[in-house]
Predict the 3D structure of the following.
Amino acid sequence: MFRLLLPALLLATTPAAPAADMLPADPVLRTLMEGDAALAGGNAAQLMDTAQVLKALGATPAEGQDDLAALWTQEAQTRGVTRSTLAFRGRALGPAYRRGSLVAGGSFTMRQLFLAGQRAQISIAPAGGAGGAGLSIRVQGADGATLCAKAVGGPQADCAWLPVFTERYDIVIENGGSSPAGFYLIMR
């Protein structure tokens, strides 16, 4: 009789979510599995977090497939989740912003630490309704190689990359214009 009850007892105690050691090493695959488990288990807060992780990883659906991040976000909101508990992504100290201004011909350089394997993004926009004429942004790796260089030609310019190693990056903002320019800088 004990032999008959043991398999039934083991099946009854099997967790709904896959065990951590059973999940794939690939972060996107792991996130997809965790999202399915959160949806099946009715854990709306975890579903919202998983949707945001999927977005942060930069994963997009193949042609003709549903956008799971959008569906999971909508489902979590339907179940009453209004915000996520995720603290940050990319930048080691979490998202940050800065407001600054540069004189004509001036430049500003700062170093920021970004985490390996997590999408890093920097956005710059002109402040005070200025057109940003002359403003530009450049991101350089620890080896001095330029990862991104853009002029602020519209409402904003973005630089995004996936660091291979956790390291510091130089963020250089320059005003090549003939008048002072204000800016907002967002780092994620």
